[in-house]
Specification:
491 residues, single chain, disordered N terminus, F-box domain-containing protein, 17 strands, 13 helices, LRR_dom_sf, two-stranded parallel sheet, 15-stranded mixed sheet, 18% strand, alpha/beta
Protein backbone atom coordinates (compact mmCIF):
# COMPACT_ATOMS: atom_id res chain seq x y z
CA UNK A 1 0.00 0.00 0.00
CA UNK A 2 1.29 3.46 -0.89
CA UNK A 3 1.89 5.63 2.15
CA UNK A 4 0.34 9.07 2.25
CA UNK A 5 2.66 11.97 1.42
CA UNK A 6 1.95 15.68 1.42
CA UNK A 7 1.66 17.25 -2.02
CA UNK A 8 3.92 20.10 -0.96
CA UNK A 9 6.74 17.82 0.23
CA UNK A 10 9.95 17.66 -1.86
CA UNK A 11 11.55 14.42 -2.98
CA UNK A 12 11.17 12.23 0.12
CA UNK A 13 14.45 11.16 1.71
CA UNK A 14 14.80 8.92 4.76
CA UNK A 15 14.90 10.87 8.00
CA UNK A 16 18.47 9.86 8.70
CA UNK A 17 19.58 11.01 5.24
CA UNK A 18 18.68 14.69 5.57
CA UNK A 19 21.99 16.40 5.21
CA UNK A 20 23.34 19.55 3.67
CA UNK A 21 23.17 18.72 -0.01
CA UNK A 22 26.17 19.43 -2.18
CA UNK A 23 25.82 21.18 -5.52
CA UNK A 24 26.25 17.82 -7.26
CA UNK A 25 23.49 16.19 -5.20
CA UNK A 26 21.16 19.14 -5.80
CA UNK A 27 21.78 18.84 -9.54
CA UNK A 28 21.00 15.12 -9.48
CA UNK A 29 17.86 15.74 -7.42
CA UNK A 30 16.70 18.35 -9.92
CA UNK A 31 17.22 15.89 -12.79
CA UNK A 32 15.16 13.26 -10.98
CA UNK A 33 12.26 15.59 -10.27
CA UNK A 34 12.26 16.91 -13.84
CA UNK A 35 12.39 13.33 -15.19
CA UNK A 36 15.36 14.17 -17.41
CA UNK A 37 16.33 10.92 -19.11
CA UNK A 38 20.07 10.20 -19.35
CA UNK A 39 21.55 9.54 -22.79
CA UNK A 40 23.67 6.38 -23.32
CA UNK A 41 26.92 8.12 -22.37
CA UNK A 42 25.37 9.59 -19.22
CA UNK A 43 23.89 6.19 -18.28
CA UNK A 44 27.39 4.72 -18.27
CA UNK A 45 28.58 7.61 -16.12
CA UNK A 46 25.70 7.09 -13.66
CA UNK A 47 26.40 3.36 -13.42
CA UNK A 48 30.08 4.11 -12.72
CA UNK A 49 29.10 6.65 -10.05
CA UNK A 50 26.87 4.04 -8.38
CA UNK A 51 29.72 1.52 -8.45
CA UNK A 52 32.16 4.05 -6.96
CA UNK A 53 29.65 5.03 -4.26
CA UNK A 54 29.01 1.38 -3.33
CA UNK A 55 32.77 0.82 -3.13
CA UNK A 56 33.14 3.83 -0.84
CA UNK A 57 30.23 2.65 1.30
CA UNK A 58 31.78 -0.77 1.84
CA UNK A 59 34.98 0.84 3.16
CA UNK A 60 33.30 2.94 5.86
CA UNK A 61 33.42 1.96 9.50
CA UNK A 62 30.45 1.70 11.83
CA UNK A 63 31.38 5.08 13.38
CA UNK A 64 30.90 6.84 10.03
CA UNK A 65 27.12 6.41 9.88
CA UNK A 66 26.44 10.01 8.81
CA UNK A 67 28.68 9.61 5.78
CA UNK A 68 27.14 6.23 5.05
CA UNK A 69 23.64 7.78 5.09
CA UNK A 70 24.74 10.40 2.60
CA UNK A 71 26.24 7.81 0.25
CA UNK A 72 23.17 5.54 0.46
CA UNK A 73 20.92 8.50 -0.35
CA UNK A 74 23.02 9.34 -3.40
CA UNK A 75 23.00 5.71 -4.59
CA UNK A 76 19.22 5.67 -4.28
CA UNK A 77 18.93 8.93 -6.20
CA UNK A 78 21.25 7.81 -9.00
CA UNK A 79 19.47 4.47 -9.25
CA UNK A 80 16.18 6.30 -9.57
CA UNK A 81 17.40 8.01 -12.73
CA UNK A 82 17.96 4.61 -14.33
CA UNK A 83 14.56 3.17 -13.35
CA UNK A 84 12.73 1.77 -16.43
CA UNK A 85 9.44 3.42 -15.40
CA UNK A 86 10.98 6.84 -16.13
CA UNK A 87 11.12 5.94 -19.82
CA UNK A 88 7.39 5.31 -20.06
CA UNK A 89 5.44 7.82 -22.15
CA UNK A 90 2.68 9.74 -20.34
CA UNK A 91 -0.15 7.72 -21.92
CA UNK A 92 1.29 4.46 -20.55
CA UNK A 93 2.05 6.01 -17.16
CA UNK A 94 -1.51 7.33 -16.85
CA UNK A 95 -2.84 3.83 -17.61
CA UNK A 96 -0.78 2.50 -14.71
CA UNK A 97 -2.07 5.23 -12.40
CA UNK A 98 -5.70 4.27 -13.02
CA UNK A 99 -5.24 0.48 -13.02
CA UNK A 100 -7.94 -1.00 -10.72
CA UNK A 101 -5.44 -3.27 -8.94
CA UNK A 102 -3.67 -0.17 -7.58
CA UNK A 103 -6.82 1.55 -6.38
CA UNK A 104 -8.50 -0.20 -3.52
CA UNK A 105 -10.72 2.07 -1.49
CA UNK A 106 -8.18 2.05 1.32
CA UNK A 107 -4.98 2.72 -0.64
CA UNK A 108 -6.52 5.69 -2.42
CA UNK A 109 -8.92 6.80 0.30
CA UNK A 110 -6.83 7.16 3.45
CA UNK A 111 -6.05 10.79 2.70
CA UNK A 112 -9.72 11.70 2.79
CA UNK A 113 -10.53 9.72 5.88
CA UNK A 114 -7.75 11.42 7.84
CA UNK A 115 -7.28 14.64 5.89
CA UNK A 116 -3.49 14.39 5.63
CA UNK A 117 -2.81 15.85 2.19
CA UNK A 118 -3.06 14.87 -1.44
CA UNK A 119 -2.06 11.73 -3.28
CA UNK A 120 1.60 10.61 -2.90
CA UNK A 121 1.92 9.79 -6.61
CA UNK A 122 1.93 13.50 -7.42
CA UNK A 123 4.92 14.08 -5.12
CA UNK A 124 7.28 11.65 -6.87
CA UNK A 125 8.36 14.03 -9.64
CA UNK A 126 7.14 16.94 -11.71
CA UNK A 127 6.59 14.52 -14.59
CA UNK A 128 4.38 12.23 -12.49
CA UNK A 129 2.51 15.20 -11.09
CA UNK A 130 1.84 16.61 -14.58
CA UNK A 131 0.71 13.17 -15.80
CA UNK A 132 -1.62 12.71 -12.83
CA UNK A 133 -3.11 16.19 -13.21
CA UNK A 134 -3.83 15.49 -16.88
CA UNK A 135 -5.56 12.17 -16.02
CA UNK A 136 -9.02 13.01 -14.62
CA UNK A 137 -9.88 9.36 -13.97
CA UNK A 138 -6.97 9.19 -11.53
CA UNK A 139 -8.90 11.56 -9.23
CA UNK A 140 -12.22 9.76 -9.61
CA UNK A 141 -11.41 6.85 -7.28
CA UNK A 142 -11.45 7.56 -3.54
CA UNK A 143 -12.97 6.90 -0.14
CA UNK A 144 -14.47 9.52 2.19
CA UNK A 145 -15.95 9.65 5.67
CA UNK A 146 -18.91 11.98 6.17
CA UNK A 147 -17.71 12.52 9.74
CA UNK A 148 -14.62 14.44 8.65
CA UNK A 149 -13.15 17.90 9.11
CA UNK A 150 -13.00 21.07 7.01
CA UNK A 151 -9.67 19.87 5.64
CA UNK A 152 -11.32 16.68 4.40
CA UNK A 153 -14.01 18.76 2.71
CA UNK A 154 -11.41 20.86 0.87
CA UNK A 155 -9.56 17.74 -0.26
CA UNK A 156 -12.83 16.26 -1.47
CA UNK A 157 -13.52 19.39 -3.50
CA UNK A 158 -10.01 19.12 -4.98
CA UNK A 159 -10.59 15.54 -6.13
CA UNK A 160 -14.05 16.28 -7.50
CA UNK A 161 -12.72 19.24 -9.49
CA UNK A 162 -9.70 17.38 -10.84
CA UNK A 163 -11.82 14.37 -11.87
CA UNK A 164 -13.81 16.73 -14.16
CA UNK A 165 -16.77 14.80 -15.59
CA UNK A 166 -15.41 11.29 -15.06
CA UNK A 167 -17.63 8.63 -13.55
CA UNK A 168 -16.80 8.23 -9.85
CA UNK A 169 -15.84 5.05 -8.00
CA UNK A 170 -16.11 5.84 -4.33
CA UNK A 171 -16.62 4.51 -0.85
CA UNK A 172 -18.72 6.53 1.58
CA UNK A 173 -18.45 5.77 5.29
CA UNK A 174 -20.88 7.01 7.89
CA UNK A 175 -19.63 5.86 11.31
CA UNK A 176 -21.59 8.27 13.51
CA UNK A 177 -24.19 11.01 13.61
CA UNK A 178 -21.67 13.92 13.63
CA UNK A 179 -21.85 14.34 9.86
CA UNK A 180 -20.00 17.29 8.33
CA UNK A 181 -22.64 19.21 6.30
CA UNK A 182 -20.11 20.45 3.73
CA UNK A 183 -18.79 16.93 2.98
CA UNK A 184 -22.34 15.62 2.70
CA UNK A 185 -23.32 18.43 0.34
CA UNK A 186 -20.31 17.92 -1.95
CA UNK A 187 -20.87 14.16 -2.07
CA UNK A 188 -24.59 14.37 -2.84
CA UNK A 189 -24.09 17.08 -5.48
CA UNK A 190 -21.97 14.66 -7.48
CA UNK A 191 -24.33 11.67 -7.26
CA UNK A 192 -25.16 11.79 -11.00
CA UNK A 193 -21.53 10.77 -11.60
CA UNK A 194 -21.52 7.79 -9.22
CA UNK A 195 -20.70 4.64 -11.19
CA UNK A 196 -19.40 2.39 -8.40
CA UNK A 197 -20.50 2.98 -4.82
CA UNK A 198 -19.71 1.23 -1.57
CA UNK A 199 -21.90 2.64 1.18
CA UNK A 200 -20.87 1.67 4.72
CA UNK A 201 -23.35 2.93 7.34
CA UNK A 202 -23.20 2.13 11.03
CA UNK A 203 -27.00 2.23 11.63
CA UNK A 204 -30.06 2.14 9.35
CA UNK A 205 -31.43 5.49 10.55
CA UNK A 206 -28.53 7.29 8.82
CA UNK A 207 -29.85 6.17 5.43
CA UNK A 208 -32.16 9.18 5.49
CA UNK A 209 -29.10 11.34 4.71
CA UNK A 210 -29.17 9.95 1.18
CA UNK A 211 -32.83 10.53 0.36
CA UNK A 212 -31.96 13.47 -1.98
CA UNK A 213 -30.22 11.14 -4.45
CA UNK A 214 -33.41 9.27 -5.40
CA UNK A 215 -34.04 9.45 -9.17
CA UNK A 216 -30.54 10.91 -9.70
CA UNK A 217 -28.49 7.70 -10.01
CA UNK A 218 -28.43 7.50 -13.77
CA UNK A 219 -24.75 6.39 -13.92
CA UNK A 220 -24.73 3.92 -11.03
CA UNK A 221 -23.70 0.43 -12.20
CA UNK A 222 -22.30 -1.23 -9.07
CA UNK A 223 -23.60 -0.87 -5.50
CA UNK A 224 -22.30 -2.38 -2.28
CA UNK A 225 -24.59 -1.64 0.64
CA UNK A 226 -23.31 -2.45 4.13
CA UNK A 227 -25.50 -1.43 7.06
CA UNK A 228 -24.83 -2.15 10.72
CA UNK A 229 -27.42 -2.96 13.33
CA UNK A 230 -26.56 -0.66 16.21
CA UNK A 231 -28.62 2.17 17.69
CA UNK A 232 -31.38 3.09 15.33
CA UNK A 233 -31.80 -0.45 14.03
CA UNK A 234 -35.54 -0.13 14.56
CA UNK A 235 -35.70 1.91 11.37
CA UNK A 236 -37.04 -0.33 8.60
CA UNK A 237 -34.77 -1.04 5.66
CA UNK A 238 -37.59 -2.69 3.73
CA UNK A 239 -39.18 0.63 2.79
CA UNK A 240 -35.93 2.23 1.64
CA UNK A 241 -36.39 3.31 -1.97
CA UNK A 242 -33.22 5.40 -2.45
CA UNK A 243 -31.77 2.95 -4.97
CA UNK A 244 -35.01 1.77 -6.55
CA UNK A 245 -34.63 3.99 -9.62
CA UNK A 246 -31.12 3.39 -10.96
CA UNK A 247 -31.53 2.48 -14.65
CA UNK A 248 -27.98 1.12 -15.14
CA UNK A 249 -27.55 -0.74 -11.84
CA UNK A 250 -26.58 -4.36 -12.56
CA UNK A 251 -24.18 -5.41 -9.77
CA UNK A 252 -25.35 -5.53 -6.15
CA UNK A 253 -23.64 -6.60 -2.92
CA UNK A 254 -25.68 -6.59 0.29
CA UNK A 255 -24.72 -6.90 3.95
CA UNK A 256 -27.78 -5.96 6.01
CA UNK A 257 -28.90 -6.54 9.60
CA UNK A 258 -32.65 -7.14 9.51
CA UNK A 259 -33.25 -10.00 7.11
CA UNK A 260 -35.17 -7.68 4.77
CA UNK A 261 -34.24 -6.08 1.47
CA UNK A 262 -34.43 -2.44 0.45
CA UNK A 263 -36.20 -1.62 -2.77
CA UNK A 264 -33.87 -2.14 -5.72
CA UNK A 265 -34.47 -2.78 -9.43
CA UNK A 266 -34.60 -6.57 -8.94
CA UNK A 267 -35.07 -7.43 -12.64
CA UNK A 268 -31.98 -5.41 -13.64
CA UNK A 269 -29.51 -7.14 -11.34
CA UNK A 270 -27.15 -9.52 -13.13
CA UNK A 271 -24.51 -10.01 -10.41
CA UNK A 272 -25.58 -10.48 -6.78
CA UNK A 273 -23.50 -11.06 -3.65
CA UNK A 274 -25.31 -11.89 -0.41
CA UNK A 275 -24.67 -13.71 2.86
CA UNK A 276 -26.04 -17.20 3.39
CA UNK A 277 -28.76 -15.78 5.66
CA UNK A 278 -30.16 -13.89 2.66
CA UNK A 279 -30.27 -16.91 0.33
CA UNK A 280 -34.12 -17.00 0.33
CA UNK A 281 -34.11 -13.57 -1.34
CA UNK A 282 -32.18 -14.86 -4.38
CA UNK A 283 -35.45 -15.96 -5.97
CA UNK A 284 -36.54 -12.31 -6.17
CA UNK A 285 -33.83 -11.61 -8.77
CA UNK A 286 -35.13 -13.28 -11.96
CA UNK A 287 -32.31 -12.36 -14.37
CA UNK A 288 -29.12 -13.21 -12.48
CA UNK A 289 -26.04 -14.35 -14.39
CA UNK A 290 -23.84 -14.70 -11.28
CA UNK A 291 -24.71 -15.35 -7.63
CA UNK A 292 -22.17 -15.25 -4.78
CA UNK A 293 -23.27 -16.53 -1.38
CA UNK A 294 -20.79 -15.90 1.43
CA UNK A 295 -20.60 -17.75 4.73
CA UNK A 296 -21.79 -21.12 6.01
CA UNK A 297 -25.57 -21.17 6.57
CA UNK A 298 -25.36 -23.94 9.15
CA UNK A 299 -28.83 -25.33 8.60
CA UNK A 300 -30.22 -25.53 5.04
CA UNK A 301 -32.85 -22.96 4.17
CA UNK A 302 -36.44 -24.08 4.29
CA UNK A 303 -38.14 -24.21 1.91
CA UNK A 304 -35.42 -24.92 -0.65
CA UNK A 305 -34.71 -21.87 -2.83
CA UNK A 306 -34.85 -22.10 -6.61
CA UNK A 307 -32.35 -19.78 -8.30
CA UNK A 308 -32.17 -19.62 -12.09
CA UNK A 309 -28.54 -18.61 -12.34
CA UNK A 310 -25.81 -19.94 -14.66
CA UNK A 311 -22.89 -19.14 -12.30
CA UNK A 312 -22.79 -19.79 -8.54
CA UNK A 313 -20.03 -19.22 -5.99
CA UNK A 314 -20.78 -20.49 -2.48
CA UNK A 315 -19.80 -22.52 0.56
CA UNK A 316 -20.53 -26.23 -0.04
CA UNK A 317 -23.16 -26.22 2.73
CA UNK A 318 -25.23 -23.71 0.74
CA UNK A 319 -26.04 -26.41 -1.83
CA UNK A 320 -28.34 -28.14 0.65
CA UNK A 321 -30.77 -25.24 0.49
CA UNK A 322 -30.81 -24.30 -3.19
CA UNK A 323 -31.88 -25.69 -6.55
CA UNK A 324 -30.18 -24.35 -9.70
CA UNK A 325 -31.60 -25.93 -12.86
CA UNK A 326 -29.73 -23.59 -15.22
CA UNK A 327 -26.33 -23.85 -13.51
CA UNK A 328 -23.29 -24.02 -15.81
CA UNK A 329 -20.38 -22.76 -13.65
CA UNK A 330 -19.96 -23.76 -9.98
CA UNK A 331 -17.29 -22.45 -7.59
CA UNK A 332 -17.26 -23.97 -4.09
CA UNK A 333 -14.97 -22.59 -1.39
CA UNK A 334 -14.62 -22.66 2.37
CA UNK A 335 -13.49 -25.07 5.05
CA UNK A 336 -15.30 -26.15 8.19
CA UNK A 337 -16.88 -29.57 8.42
CA UNK A 338 -15.94 -32.16 5.76
CA UNK A 339 -18.11 -32.10 2.65
CA UNK A 340 -19.48 -35.41 1.48
CA UNK A 341 -20.25 -36.49 -2.06
CA UNK A 342 -23.72 -37.55 -0.93
CA UNK A 343 -24.69 -33.91 -0.32
CA UNK A 344 -23.53 -33.02 -3.81
CA UNK A 345 -25.35 -35.98 -5.34
CA UNK A 346 -28.67 -34.85 -3.83
CA UNK A 347 -28.05 -31.32 -5.15
CA UNK A 348 -27.31 -32.62 -8.66
CA UNK A 349 -30.38 -34.89 -8.73
CA UNK A 350 -32.59 -32.04 -7.55
CA UNK A 351 -31.22 -29.46 -10.00
CA UNK A 352 -30.69 -31.58 -13.13
CA UNK A 353 -28.20 -29.12 -14.64
CA UNK A 354 -25.52 -29.58 -17.29
CA UNK A 355 -22.43 -28.31 -15.47
CA UNK A 356 -19.46 -27.19 -17.60
CA UNK A 357 -17.08 -25.68 -15.01
CA UNK A 358 -16.34 -26.97 -11.50
CA UNK A 359 -13.97 -25.33 -9.01
CA UNK A 360 -13.28 -26.73 -5.54
CA UNK A 361 -11.27 -24.16 -3.57
CA UNK A 362 -10.02 -24.80 -0.02
CA UNK A 363 -12.81 -27.33 0.56
CA UNK A 364 -12.51 -30.02 3.23
CA UNK A 365 -13.23 -33.24 1.35
CA UNK A 366 -11.83 -36.75 1.34
CA UNK A 367 -10.22 -38.28 -1.72
CA UNK A 368 -12.90 -40.95 -2.08
CA UNK A 369 -15.59 -38.26 -2.08
CA UNK A 370 -13.76 -36.42 -4.88
CA UNK A 371 -13.84 -39.67 -6.87
CA UNK A 372 -17.61 -40.00 -6.28
CA UNK A 373 -18.24 -36.39 -7.35
CA UNK A 374 -16.62 -36.72 -10.79
CA UNK A 375 -19.17 -39.09 -12.41
CA UNK A 376 -22.01 -36.82 -11.25
CA UNK A 377 -20.87 -34.05 -13.62
CA UNK A 378 -19.88 -35.84 -16.84
CA UNK A 379 -20.18 -32.72 -19.03
CA UNK A 380 -17.57 -30.70 -17.11
CA UNK A 381 -14.99 -29.20 -19.45
CA UNK A 382 -12.94 -27.27 -16.85
CA UNK A 383 -11.92 -28.67 -13.45
CA UNK A 384 -10.02 -26.68 -10.79
CA UNK A 385 -8.88 -28.35 -7.56
CA UNK A 386 -7.17 -25.85 -5.28
CA UNK A 387 -5.82 -26.35 -1.76
CA UNK A 388 -8.26 -29.14 -0.95
CA UNK A 389 -7.93 -30.40 2.62
CA UNK A 390 -6.62 -32.60 4.06
CA UNK A 391 -4.34 -33.57 1.11
CA UNK A 392 -7.52 -34.62 -0.67
CA UNK A 393 -6.09 -35.31 -4.13
CA UNK A 394 -4.68 -38.79 -3.67
CA UNK A 395 -3.64 -41.72 -5.85
CA UNK A 396 -7.24 -42.88 -6.24
CA UNK A 397 -8.24 -39.45 -7.59
CA UNK A 398 -5.41 -39.54 -10.13
CA UNK A 399 -6.43 -43.03 -11.22
CA UNK A 400 -10.05 -41.95 -11.54
CA UNK A 401 -8.95 -39.17 -13.90
CA UNK A 402 -6.66 -41.46 -15.90
CA UNK A 403 -8.13 -42.51 -19.23
CA UNK A 404 -8.32 -46.27 -19.69
CA UNK A 405 -10.41 -48.96 -21.32
CA UNK A 406 -13.35 -48.66 -18.92
CA UNK A 407 -15.86 -45.86 -18.28
CA UNK A 408 -14.27 -42.42 -18.39
CA UNK A 409 -14.44 -39.76 -15.67
CA UNK A 410 -15.06 -36.33 -17.17
CA UNK A 411 -14.80 -37.34 -20.84
CA UNK A 412 -15.35 -33.70 -21.95
CA UNK A 413 -12.49 -32.32 -19.81
CA UNK A 414 -10.16 -29.94 -21.69
CA UNK A 415 -8.90 -27.70 -18.84
CA UNK A 416 -7.35 -28.97 -15.59
CA UNK A 417 -5.87 -26.95 -12.73
CA UNK A 418 -4.24 -28.53 -9.66
CA UNK A 419 -2.91 -26.26 -6.93
CA UNK A 420 -1.82 -27.11 -3.40
CA UNK A 421 0.08 -29.84 -1.59
CA UNK A 422 -1.07 -33.39 -2.25
CA UNK A 423 0.05 -36.96 -1.63
CA UNK A 424 -0.27 -38.53 -5.09
CA UNK A 425 2.97 -39.66 -6.70
CA UNK A 426 4.53 -37.78 -9.59
CA UNK A 427 4.57 -40.86 -11.91
CA UNK A 428 0.81 -41.28 -11.35
CA UNK A 429 0.24 -37.61 -12.18
CA UNK A 430 2.29 -37.86 -15.40
CA UNK A 431 0.52 -41.05 -16.43
CA UNK A 432 -2.85 -39.35 -15.97
CA UNK A 433 -1.86 -36.31 -18.04
CA UNK A 434 -0.34 -38.39 -20.83
CA UNK A 435 -3.45 -40.56 -21.01
CA UNK A 436 -5.68 -37.54 -21.65
CA UNK A 437 -3.88 -35.87 -24.54
CA UNK A 438 -4.83 -38.35 -27.24
CA UNK A 439 -7.94 -37.84 -29.35
CA UNK A 440 -10.64 -40.51 -29.62
CA UNK A 441 -14.34 -40.66 -30.37
CA UNK A 442 -15.37 -40.93 -26.71
CA UNK A 443 -13.50 -38.11 -24.97
CA UNK A 444 -11.85 -34.75 -25.58
CA UNK A 445 -8.10 -34.20 -25.16
CA UNK A 446 -6.63 -31.88 -22.55
CA UNK A 447 -5.69 -28.49 -23.95
CA UNK A 448 -4.85 -26.37 -20.86
CA UNK A 449 -3.08 -27.66 -17.73
CA UNK A 450 -1.98 -25.72 -14.65
CA UNK A 451 0.12 -27.44 -11.97
CA UNK A 452 1.05 -25.31 -8.96
CA UNK A 453 2.29 -27.90 -6.46
CA UNK A 454 3.90 -26.14 -3.53
CA UNK A 455 5.84 -29.00 -1.92
CA UNK A 456 6.72 -31.01 -5.01
CA UNK A 457 9.97 -31.16 -6.94
CA UNK A 458 10.12 -32.59 -10.46
CA UNK A 459 13.24 -34.33 -11.69
CA UNK A 460 14.85 -33.55 -15.03
CA UNK A 461 13.28 -36.58 -16.73
CA UNK A 462 9.85 -35.73 -15.31
CA UNK A 463 10.14 -32.14 -16.57
CA UNK A 464 11.01 -33.52 -20.00
CA UNK A 465 7.80 -35.58 -19.96
CA UNK A 466 5.86 -32.45 -19.08
CA UNK A 467 7.53 -30.53 -21.92
CA UNK A 468 6.47 -33.30 -24.28
CA UNK A 469 2.85 -32.46 -23.47
CA UNK A 470 3.32 -29.00 -24.95
CA UNK A 471 4.52 -30.57 -28.19
CA UNK A 472 1.19 -32.38 -28.29
CA UNK A 473 -0.71 -29.11 -28.24
CA UNK A 474 -1.19 -28.67 -24.47
CA UNK A 475 -0.79 -25.18 -22.95
CA UNK A 476 1.10 -25.90 -19.73
CA UNK A 477 1.93 -23.89 -16.59
CA UNK A 478 4.09 -25.61 -13.96
CA UNK A 479 5.12 -24.06 -10.66
CA UNK A 480 6.95 -26.23 -8.12
CA UNK A 481 10.13 -26.49 -6.05
CA UNK A 482 13.47 -26.05 -7.76
CA UNK A 483 16.75 -27.60 -6.66
CA UNK A 484 17.11 -24.89 -4.00
CA UNK A 485 13.64 -25.67 -2.57
CA UNK A 486 12.21 -22.39 -3.84
CA UNK A 487 8.64 -22.32 -5.19
CA UNK A 488 9.16 -21.02 -8.72
CA UNK A 489 7.72 -21.30 -12.23
CA UNK A 490 9.47 -24.13 -14.09
CA UNK A 491 7.41 -24.27 -17.30
Amino acid sequence: MIQSTSLSAPFALPEQARFAMSGQFASELWAVRQNILPDPVERISIQKSIYDAETSLSSLSAEQEDAACEIRARISLLGSRLAPIRRLPPEILSSIFVDPSLHTSISRGTFLLAGRGSDPVTAVSFHWRATALSTPHFWAIFSVSLCGTDNVMHLLQLYLNRSKNCALSLEIRVRGSDVHPGILREILNGCERWATLRLDIVTPDLLSLFSPIRRRLRSLRQLSLQIGGGFGAGVSIEGLDTFELAPNLSTLKLSLPDGVLPRVPFAQIKTLSISADFLPFAARFPNLSFLSVTGNPGEPSSPIVTADVPSLSAHPAVLQGVTTPTLVHLHLSGGGTPWSSRQFEVFVQRSQFALRTLTLDNVRIRGKDVVHVLPLVPMVQSLTLQSLQPHAITEIVMRALTRGDGPQSLPALTTLSLSGSYLFSTPTLLEMLESRISVDSHSAPLRWVKLHLRHREFGAEQLDRLRALTRSGVSLSVKCLNADKQFVTML
